[in-house]
Design a protein that fits this description.
This protein is mainly beta. The protein has strands spanning 3-7, 10-13, 18-25, 33-39, 46-51, 58-60, 68-73, 78-83, 92-99, 105-106, 110-115. 0% of the residues lie in helices and 53% in strands.
């Protein structure tokens, strides 16, 4: 089992920045691909970004490309999502996920609200 705890969400004005963190425990962190997803009110959960085990490969949804940056610190068992130039449509609950191939483990989510 892997336990994931997100933090760093909050209320920010459009154009602002936030940095989300996700601390993992329970298994060897570097064994897992890590990802971020989000779920806006009344909508399905959607993919935001993922990062390889070593951190050398990253992938982003088109909607966040160029604004968000995913990174990880395997020594701290933590993955980050730096979010810049935030837009009201980025408002959602953001979830951290981990998996060996598919994402099997999920955090409880952290709320991000972007005001216009």
């Amino acid at each position: 089992q892997v336990q994931l705890v997100e933090s760093g969400g909050g209320l920010v004005q459009a154009g602002g920045s936030l940095r989300l963190s996700c601390a993992a425990s329970g298994r060897t962190f570097s064994n897992y691909i890590m990802g971020w997803f989000r779920q806006a009110p009344g909508k399905e959960r959607t993919f935001v970004s993922r990062i390889s085990r070593s951190g050398g490969s990253t992938y982003y949804a088109d909607s966040v490309k160029g604004r968000f940056t995913i990174s990880r610190d395997n020594a701290k068992s933590t993955v980050y999502l730096q979010m810049n130039s935030l837009k009201p449509e980025d408002t959602a609950v953001y979830y951290c996920a981990a998996g060996a191939a598919e994402f099997d483990y999920w955090g409880q989510g952290t709320q991000v609200t972007v005001s216009s």
